[in-house]
């Protein structure tokens, strides 16, 4: 197993329904892939509970998404998603996701996804909970 495979938060083998008429993964499919990779990363870090909207009076909504596409991916190809919490502000968390194919040292796709913390009932932006902040600080990229 390569380093890319070992360090992946999530992997997927591209199903046919995610391929567009040009024969490669449709760009829009990468967003749910990256959201799943972030969720899996948080689960692997033992953070599912601190991010659970049903357990707290806050939730995280997507605020901003940015993708850079370097090379296409194709049906049946195995992709590896690496997740890194990158920035933490008073109200937002930025994740960086890099998508690799087997045995490739450079990513095919890179994403920046920013979540904003909101109060559940009023959907009003609020400060990130101390428990979440404390859990993420050690994971931030250097």
Structure, described:
With 142 residues, this protein is of the alpha+beta class. The protein has one domain: Roll (Thiol Ester Dehydrase, Chain A). Helices cover 18% and strands 35% of the residues. Strands 1, 2, 3, 4, 5 and 6 form a six-stranded antiparallel β-sheet that branches. A hairpin with a 4-residue loop joins strand 5 and strand 6 (124-125). The model has no long low-confidence stretch (mean pLDDT 92).
What is the CATH-assigned architecture? Roll
Helix-strand pattern:
HEHEEEEEH
SS elements, strand count: 6
* Shape estimate: globular
CATH class: Alpha Beta
What percent strand? Answer: 35-45%
Number of helices: 3
How many angstroms does the end-to-end distance come to? Answer: 26 Å
How many separate domains? 1
Major β-sheet annotation = 6 strands, antiparallel
* Structure classification: alpha+beta
CATH superfamily: Hotdog Thioesterase
- As a whole number of angstroms, the C-alpha radius of gyration is 16 Å
